[in-house]
Amino acid sequence: MESVEEKRSFTEANSLKVDRARCIVCGACTAVCPAEALVLFGLKLELIKEKCISCGLSEKVCTTGALTCPVGK
Ligand code: SF4
Ligand code: SF4
């Protein structure tokens, strides 16, 4: 059986990356995410990594290049 550590490293390697310096907190990505993995807290975008299914939708709608999805393209 897969250990917790193995699962964690797999998730990290395939996880969406958020570049906060580029994010203008427009909310477009939170609106399209089917997994509710992106949430706006005031002026900060939070990614709930455990929920992200790496579908790539959020990266497609982000106009500032703040999101990078390693899979789902
Ligand atoms: S890659 Fe898909 S599941 Fe993950 S945050 Fe973006 S829209 Fe949501
Ligand atoms: S779509 Fe891009 S700029 Fe808009 S909130 Fe999401 S990451 Fe930030």
Overview of the structural elements:
By secondary structure, the protein is α+β, with helices and mostly antiparallel strands. It has a single domain, classed as Alpha-Beta Plaits (2-Layer Sandwich). Helices cover 29% and strands 16% of the residues. It is built from three helices and four strands, in the order αβαββαβ. The strands form two sheets. The protein has a two-stranded antiparallel ribbon with strand order 1-4. A hairpin with a 2-residue loop joins strand 2 and strand 3. The longest helix is centred in the first third of the chain and has 11 residues. It is globular. Bound molecules: iron/sulfur cluster (SF4) (2 copies). The site of one iron/sulfur cluster (SF4) has 13 residues, from helix 2.
Per CATH, the class reads Alpha Beta
According to CATH, what is the topology? Alpha-Beta Plaits
Report the portion of residues in β strands: 15-25%
Q: Which structural category do the helix and sheet elements fall into?
A: alpha+beta
Number of domain units: 1
Low-confidence stretches are none
Outline: globular
